[in-house]
């Protein structure tokens, strides 16, 4: 049974628009419709989302938690059916459908450059082993579009991996790239003005912060395709778009790299993308967020500085004007 409930007031009630709308003037009307659909409830359909690359996942529990009484864990079916993954669809409910045909390559390899030995290629299992194995961490997740979830990731500390990789001493930043194969992500061909592949970057300090995770699982299972199989970045104090999916390349570099969104629209999407309720997006407020909970009336809650991780990360940005460095 497929139930889709759409509430027309969702868009008018707040002015939030998809990242995508502004960027495609000729396609604007279609996209606004897509955006309007996205702000209804996620599809409540039975999901075929166990598209995993390995069946067994062994991980440790950790104390990285979000109090259930404060912010309840997002239902799995919502996290697996309300997605941003533009390589597959602009429509959040379309992603889980459009990934169905994708056969995730095994072993999936990641090319790493700017390290001792120059350039090396690793498969996912090697990366997990180098980083000391997998663990579960429950993190708040806040999209720049002003919606949020609470998600139980399974993954490894990027800091631990970086220690083993031995980056060049000149490296100041880490640059990540998603696959660029348009046969996998057919939607890329429909968005030729986008600077594919999807890319993102972090400072070395951010990349080696203990909260920064490379996720290979979600809800105790291998990462579903729509969530960025087989491995994606999770930086919980930053807006969702920094959390690049399906990584194929990691480079340690001297100069500050630009992510896809910054390349497209630097006035709206900066390098830092730290969650900040006091710094509005040019087209909407960031002071509050809609909790994705499958309800008719998405609950609105105040957005927290650094998404609630201020104690952990504020030091990284000491002396930086966060209004300018957004
Ligand atoms: N490769 C790639 N990574 C991506 C995106 C994308 O379109 N392509 N979207 C980003 C955005 S805007 C968000 S909010 C999160 C959504 O992750 P989720 O679908 O697992 O919730 O993925 C981020 N990573
Ligand atoms: Mo996002």
Account of the protein in words:
It is a single chain. By secondary structure, this protein is α+β, with helices and mostly antiparallel strands. It has helices at residues 9-13, 28-38, 76-79, 95-98, 124-130, 158-165, 187-190, 204-207, 260-264, 310-313; strands spanning 59-60, 109-115, 118-123, 134-142, 147-157, 173-178, 199-203, 213-218, 221-222, 232-234, 247-253, 288-291, 299-302. The chain has 10 helices and 13 strands. The strands form 2 sheets. Strands 1, 4, 5, 8, 9, 10, 12 and 13 form an 8-stranded mixed beta sheet that branches. A hairpin with a 2-residue loop joins strand 2 and strand 3 (118-123). The protein starts with 8 loop residues before the first helix and ends in a 13-residue tail after the last helix. The model is unreliable at 1-15 and 20-55 (pLDDT under 50). The structure holds the ligand Nc1nc2c(c(=O)[nH]1)N[C@H]1C(S)=C(S)[C@@H](COP(=O)(O)O)O[C@H]1N2 and molybdenum atom. The ligand Nc1nc2c(c(=O)[nH]1)N[C@H]1C(S)=C(S)[C@@H](COP(=O)(O)O)O[C@H]1N2 binds next to loops.
């Amino acid at each position: 049974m497929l139930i889709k409930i759409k509430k027309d007031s969702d868009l008018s009630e707040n002015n939030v628009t998809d990242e995508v709308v502004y960027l495609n003037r000729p396609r604007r009307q279609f996209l606004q419709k897509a955006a309007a659909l996205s702000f209804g409830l996620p599809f409540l359909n039975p999901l075929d989302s166990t598209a995993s690359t390995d069946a067994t996942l062994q991980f440790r529990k950790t104390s990285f938690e979000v109090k259930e009484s404060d912010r309840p864990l997002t239902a799995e079916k919502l996290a697996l059916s309300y997605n941003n993954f533009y390589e597959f669809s602009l429509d959040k409910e379309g992603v889980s459908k459009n990934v169905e045909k994708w056969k995730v390559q095994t072993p999936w390899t990641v090319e790493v450059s700017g390290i001792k030995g120059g350039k090396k290629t690793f498969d996912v299992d090697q990366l997990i082993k180098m980083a000391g194995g997998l663990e579960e961490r429950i993190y708040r997740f806040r999209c720049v579009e002003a919606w949020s979830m609470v998600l139980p990731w399974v993954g490894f500390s990027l800091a631990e991996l970086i220690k083993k990789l031995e980056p060049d001493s000149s490296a100041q930043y880490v640059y990540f790239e998603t696959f660029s194969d348009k046969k996998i992500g057919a939607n890329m061909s429909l968005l030729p003005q986008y600077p594919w592949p999807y890319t993102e970057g972090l400072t070395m300090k951010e990349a080696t912060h203990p909260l920064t995770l490379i996720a290979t699982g979600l809800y105790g299972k291998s990462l579903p395709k729509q969530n960025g199989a087989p491995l994606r970045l999770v930086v919980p104090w930053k807006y969702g778009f920094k959390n690049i999916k399906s990584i194929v390349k990691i480079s340690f570099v001297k100069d500050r790299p630009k992510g896809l969104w910054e390349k497209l629209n630097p006035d709206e999407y900066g390098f830092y993308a730290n969650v900040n309720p006091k710094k509005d997006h040019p087209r909407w407020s960031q002071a509050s967020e809609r909790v994705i909970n499958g309800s008719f009336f998405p609950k609105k809650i105040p957005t927290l500085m650094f998404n609630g991780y201020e104690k952990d990360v504020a030091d990284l940005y000491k002396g930086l004007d966060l209004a300018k460095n957004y």
